[in-house]
């Protein structure tokens, strides 16, 4: 009886030792991150808007549908932020690409991640910025400010459009009211 328990326990330990590296978080190289970007459009758009992360990692997500088997975590150390992306399967195809979470990093996490980032940095620029070189924190801030200004301009245009539509609606209701009062006089 004890011998069987020991054998089963040994098998479980061996299986855990073999499976643990598969489930562990592993840092992604630049090429691996670009491959993930090619498969996950939400991830690609986020990196295009915010620049390359200081560190990217893949970790086990789920072994059952609808989720893909892994997720990609992006670490922006200067912003103290972690952002996770994953894919979900619909009808057997990975057709949903989503940002699963966005969470702040503590000082301890930033220190630990900074050590990992120095060992394996993901500092290459997106494909459209290759000629200018990698973006530093100042350039990223300028890009963010430019995007914010563009977004504010779009919001302002939408507000003006909404005001024009409201003025047209008021004019229509005023004409309808006048027409109604004229019909009552006759």
Contiguous uncertain segments of 5+ residues: 16-22, 124-132
Structural class: alpha+beta
Q: Give the helix level as a range of percent.
A: 55-70%
Please compute the radius of gyration using only Cα atoms: 27 Å
* Shape label: elongated
What share of the residues does DSSP label as strand, in percent? 15-25%
Describe it for me?
The protein is an alpha+beta fold. It folds into two domains: 11-132, no CATH class; 136-186. 56% of the residues lie in helices and 20% in strands. The protein is built from five helices and five strands, in the order αβααββββαα. A hairpin with a 2-residue loop joins strand 4 and strand 5. Helix 2 (30-39) crosses helix 3 (41-50). The longest helix is centred in the last third of the chain and has 49 residues, at 137-185.
């Amino acid at each position: 009886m004890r011998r069987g328990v020991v054998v089963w326990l040994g098998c479980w330990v061996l299986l855990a030792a073999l499976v643990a590296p598969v489930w562990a978080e592993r840092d992604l190289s630049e090429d691996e991150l670009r491959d993930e970007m090619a498969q996950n459009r939400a991830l690609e758009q986020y990196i295009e808007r915010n620049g390359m992360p200081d560190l990217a990692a893949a970790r086990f997500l789920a072994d059952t549908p609808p989720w893909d088997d892994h997720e990609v975590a992006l670490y922006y150390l200067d912003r103290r932020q972690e952002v996770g992306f994953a894919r979900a399967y619909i009808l057997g195809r990975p057709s949903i690409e989503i940002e699963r979470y966005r969470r702040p990093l503590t000082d301890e996490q930033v220190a630990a991640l900074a050590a990992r980032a120095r060992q394996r940095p993901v500092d290459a620029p997106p494909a459209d910025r290759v000629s200018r070189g990698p973006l530093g924190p100042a350039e990223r801030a300028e890009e963010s400010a430019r995007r914010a200004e563009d977004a504010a301009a779009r919001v302002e245009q939408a507000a003006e459009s909404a005001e024009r539509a409201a003025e047209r609606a008021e004019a229509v209701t005023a004409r309808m009211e006048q027409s109604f009062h004229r019909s009552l006089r006759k």
